[in-house]
Amino acid sequence: MNQQESKFIASAAIRLALSPDRDAERQLKEQLAQEGIKATAADYGGEFITSVQKVVERAVVAAKREGVIESTHQAEGGVAGAAREALSQIMPKAVGLNVGGKVGIARKGDHIAVAIFFAIGLLHLNEVAIGLGHRAI
Fold this sequence. Notes:
Elements: H1 3-18, H2 22-34, E1 38-47, H3 48-65, H4 73-94, E2 98-108, E3 111-122, E4 125-136
Antiparallel strand pairs: 1-2, 2-3, 3-4
Helix pairs in contact: 3-4
């Protein structure tokens, strides 16, 4: 897989994480499937620290449910590792605050990307952020 393909897979995960609703998400997944990319997304929300484990679990469950990965230790660990990497990029902004958003997961061949979109809330002041992780499985 060349650098352009890895970049496209990362872009696909980010676009899924930013999709505004289930219809847009479904259309994007169909478009990506035509290009040989398996993809899925999952919503989440809650206090950041208590949500970390739930976000990682939802990413792995969604990827297995939608056939993006097989039910193997390597594949599940790849998704979990990429999700934790994405979460760690945003942690300094989100610790102690409520977060909500979507996880986007895209895979082609041995490469998988996990993008996490965060809306980080404090009263009526909101911040937004995206974390991205990549693994080869």
